[in-house]
Each structure stands twice: as structure tokens, then as C-alpha cells.
Design a protein that fits this description.
alpha/beta, 11 helices, binds adenosine monophosphate, binds fe (iii) ion, binds zinc ion
Length: 292
């Protein structure tokens, strides 16, 4: 039985699995999405496309179309998350860059743990890395270890006091320039979209990103309030950027898949841009664009 939540959208273009810092495996994530009536999903794990194959297999069985996606940590005066949609997961340059990012993420966790040790909170960095398993490790894994060691009461407190931007154990995920992240995504045949720009206070940089070749903006994100969405829509119109959205689902505590996203009609507005980038004719189907 498929159930659509009263406020649900059929398209959700932002979700995480255990291949990065999500709580659900790609299989469990797509099962949950299917149960909520989702039709089109993008799995956008941090710096990896490793969950796509498993997710798309489950999606085929349950009637959810999977768009290959990724959320790349980049840098432009501050941290910037660049979403890539319809990227070819087997693209050589993208895969090589993501392999490097995986190693850099592990080193970063060692650096964060060294800082925390200096603050009187020793943790086992190698244990944190190995518990992330096949997934890309990140600050949420460190936060979990801090809660477990009773250094903080909650995940939120770990970020607010130690791991968040400008806090004493903050270490940037990546200094990859945004222009390079966009180029990697384009090289892999995808569209580059700036993730949750208002949550990261990046609004004023959007014109510069548009100059770099950015394709779209994640307007619909749970952290964006109505006024911010209206302002972003105006920016998109001015710079001819596509409009995207999703829940940024990480696990059962957050907004469930489909509570934020797009209608199928709004999703289809994105496709002509992708067909143009690929030099495909306007009749190219989702399959031909790499969804499955
Ligand atoms: P990382 O990729 O390691 O920098 O971690 C970024 C992730 O940490 C985000 O995708 C969220 O899952 C989580 N995160 C970032 N900021 C916060 C915050 N202030 N409170 C809780 N979780 C956060
Ligand atoms: Fe995350
Ligand atoms: Fe993000
Ligand atoms: Zn995300």
C-alpha cells in the first residue's frame, strides 16, 4: 500500500544514507520513501555516490525513480555544499576526486579528535572512522561519539559548543573551490545546484556561483523560511537558475522524505537544462538522462 502524507511531495531531491551520515541504509531509505508515496528521489550522500546502485535497485522494485546524486563539500570564503544531480557515478574524474575526499574526511576526523583531546575530551578517532563503515565519515559521527562518552548531552550540543562553524573543534570539510566542484559535476554529465544557501548564509554569493556555471538553487529546504524562499525564487529568475528542493533527510528524528520537495511539474522544469548541457534532444527520457 502506498500512502502519501497530506503535505507530501512526490519528488524529493535531497537525502542521506549510511553511505555518509544518514541513519538508514540505501535500501531502508528507499523503502521508507516508497511507503510515503515518493515517485522520484535523489540520494545525495556527502562526497560519495556509493549508495546509488543499491538505492536504484530497490527503487526499481518499489516504483521509485532514482536520480544519481551527490553533495560535495566545497569552499568559497566559507563552507559550501554543492549538489550534483544526474552525475555518472562511474565518471573517472569525479570518482577520483571523491576517493580523495573520503581520505581527507578521515584525516579531518583525526584533526577534530586532536582538538577535542586538547579540550579535555579524548576520543578514539580510529574507532569513529571504522564505525562509519563503508560510509563517508563526518562531524555527525564525532557528535555521536561525544554523546556516548557523555561529554555532551546531545548531538545539537556537540555542534553548538564544539563542532559547528567558528567553534573550538571546527575543522572545514574541504577547501575545494566551488568552481572546481561545479566543473567536476559538469564533467560527469550532471547539474550543479547550491544546497541550503540560506542555512549557510550564502545568498550574496549566488550571482558569483551563477557566473561559475551553477545550474540551480535548492530553494525548498526545511531550514528555509517562507521569506527566504521568495527571495531565492527571485534570484533564480534573475540569474536563470533552476529551482530544486528536498528534505535533507538524515534519519527518523528529521522531517521524513517528501515533506519538502517538488511537484512532478516543477521537477520537469529542470530537465531542459540538463538535455541542453548533454546536447540531447528535448524528447530524451529520464532513463536516457541516467535515472533508473
Ligand atoms: P560534515 O560533512 O562532516 O561537515 O558534516 C555536515 C553534516 O553535519 C550536515 O550534513 C548535518 O548532517 C550535520 N550538521 C551540520 N551542522 C549541524 C548542526 N548545527 N547541528 C546538527 N547537525 C549539524
Ligand atoms: Fe549530513
Ligand atoms: Fe548539506
Ligand atoms: Zn545534505
Amino acid at each position: 500500500m502506498s500512502v502519501t502524507a497530506p503535505t507530501g511531495y512526490p519528488v524529493d531531491l535531497h537525502a542521506h544514507s549510511t553511505r555518509s551520515d544518514g541513519a538508514l541504509s540505501p535500501t531502508a531509505l528507499i523503502e521508507k520513501a516508497a511507503g510515503r508515496g515518493l515517485k522520484i528521489m535523489a540520494l545525495t550522500d556527502h562526497d560519495t555516490t556509493a549508495g546509488f546502485e543499491e538505492a536504484s535497485e530497490v527503487g526499481r522494485r518499489l516504483g521509485v525513480t532514482l536520480i544519481p546524486g551527490v553533495e560535495i563539500s566545497a569552499w568559497h570564503e566559507r563552507e559550501v555544499h554543492v549538489l550534483g544531480y544526474f552525475v555518472d557515478p562511474s565518471d573517472e574524474a569525479l570518482s577520483a576526486a571523491l576517493r580523495q575526499r573520503k581520505i581527507a574526511r578521515e584525516d579531518r576526523v583525526r584533526t577534530i579528535c586532536a582538538r577535542l583531546k586538547g579540550l579535555g575530551m579524548p576520543l578514539d578517532a580510529e574507532g569513529i572512522i571504522s564505525r562509519a563503515g563503508r560510509g563517508n565519515v563526518g562531524r555527525p559521527h564525532v557528535a555521536r561519539a561525544m554523546v556516548f562518552a557523555q561529554y555532551v548531552r546531545s548531538h545539537d550540543e556537540a555542534f553548538k559548543r564544539y563542532l559547528g562553524l567558528n567553534k573550538p573543534a571546527y575543522v572545514a570539510a574541504s577547501h575545494l573551490p566551488v568552481a572546481n566542484a561545479i566543473a567536476l559535476i559538469h564533467g560527469a554529465g550532471g547539474l550543479a545546484v547550491i544546497a541550503h544557501p540560506c542555512a549557510d548564509r550564502l545568498e550574496k554569493h549566488i550571482p558569483a556561483f551563477a557566473e561559475m556555471g551553477l545550474d540551480g538553487v535548492e530553494v525548498y529546504h526545511p531550514a528555509h523560511h517562507h521569506g527566504q524562499r521568495v527571495a531565492l525564487l527571485k534570484l533564480c529568475e534573475l540569474h536563470q537558475l533552476a529551482v530544486t528542493g528536498g528534505t535533507d533527510f538524515h534519519g527518523p528524528e528529521g522531517d521524513p522524505p517528501g515533506t519538502c520537495g517538488l511537484t512532478v511539474e516543477d521537477f520537469e522544469q529542470i530537465l531542459p537544462r540538463l538535455r541542453r548541457r548533454r546536447g540531447l534532444d528535448l524528447g530524451a527520457t529520464l532513463d536516457q538522462l541516467g535515472a533508473s
